[in-house]
S-(Hydroxymethyl)mycothiol dehydrogenase
Amino acid sequence: MASSVQGVVSRGKGQPVEVTEVLVPDPGPGEALVRIQACGVCHTDLHYKMGGIGDDFPYLLGHEAAGVVEAVGDNVTDVAPGDFVILNWRAVCGQCRACKRGRPWYCFATHNATQKMTLADGTTLSPALGIGAFAEKTLVAAGQCTKVNPAIAPATAGLLGCGVMAGIGAAINTGGVGRGDTVAVIGCGGVGDGAVLGARLAGAKTIIAVDVDDRKLEWAREFGATHTINSRTADAVEGIRELTGGFGADVVVEAIGRPETYKQAFFARDLAGTVVLVGVPTPEMQLDLPLLEVFGRGGSLKSSWYGDCLPSRDFPMLVDLHLDGRLPLEKFVSETIGLGDVEAAFEKMEHGEVLRSVVVF
């Protein structure tokens, strides 16, 4: 029998979200029913609401979540009822060409639950990133559940499900930041500060945070930035070069997803340095770079998908580092809210007032 729960739904492009009844099926083969304990309000959810990702309305929003497995379907062996899990949107298939080449973090055939959640009138919902966790319960593919130590607070754990993991992974997994490196991060929201934290964890010598908001730059310092540049009043490229002996940074993480900030990242890196794009562009954006500069500067221009993370490997490790006091993930939680506060949380996000608002059930 389907569960009737309350969830946050976006019915149309740009419309205010609403809390309404959602019907969640019992899990079928390969699926898991998860009782959500906390879910972060991520910028990706705002993209869904504004029609920046697709037009498959209505959307059941929310994806940065942690909770407890309530039931599983047939053929599920990795998780069981009672397990505390972080949800992820990359359920590794094990069979695609990336998985078979030993690169499951690039899995090209990730999957979601087969059954659909609906509104009370039977209207099919599109769950954000295949999760839909602004709801008391959600149905996912069992592979989207990663079991972790339940000692971590759910409001903190859920943030590893998207933004914070994307940032940490952009620095460590994609950018390959190592001991003594110089790193610049352009855009210091949740993802950018995750990259700052990842660079610090990897042993970077110099970590330069760039943003147009002094409040965000102060947050970046709390996560480990050694220097900050307000690019509203100073030239970001010149500032990064000045702070790196005139050379540019070994790794530059672009955490905004705009052509103008990508160009800053490109010209702010050292010769043979690496640019990592982890900010998400919109479909109409175009990039224009001199091809001779692309050739002449060498190095790597990379895109980071979900921080190139492997949830089964990275989530438990990062949770353990947090519980050991080495990874202050709790600093990302600006406030805890209820389901009815999500629309207001989007407004705070747009105004740069919070790193993360987290819905707590």
